[in-house]
Design goal:
By secondary structure, the chain is mostly helical. Helices cover 51% and strands 9% of the residues. It is built from four helices and three strands, in the order βααββαα. The protein has a three-stranded antiparallel beta sheet with strand order 1-3-2. Helix 3 packs antiparallel against helix 4. It is globular.
Length: 79
């Protein structure tokens, strides 16, 4: 963890067992957004709350929901 209380995109991906590209896809779909983005380097950082949202999205996908279903964004935002 480079910044106190923040996790890099790589740390989140590794901990959950997904790729950085998957997290970026969630951002593109509007499911999550970085809690901090370094303007110079473009590095993204996430709080534990966003980390939990990513994990929740993965759980919902494993249960059969797709990213295009409105329920997945609502469920992720409820966390």
């Amino acid at each position: 963890m480079k910044n106190r209380g923040l996790f890099s995109i790589g740390e989140v991906a590794k901990a959950i067992g997904i790729t950085r590209k998957t997290i970026l896809n969630y951002e593109t779909k509007g499911l999550i957004k970085p809690d901090k983005k370094d303007g110079a380097s473009g590095n993204r950082y996430y709080t534990i709350d966003t980390f939990t949202k990513v994990r929740t999205i993965r759980i919902l996908q494993n249960l059969g929901l797709t990213l295009d279903e409105k329920g997945i964004s609502k469920k992720a935002d409820d966390r």
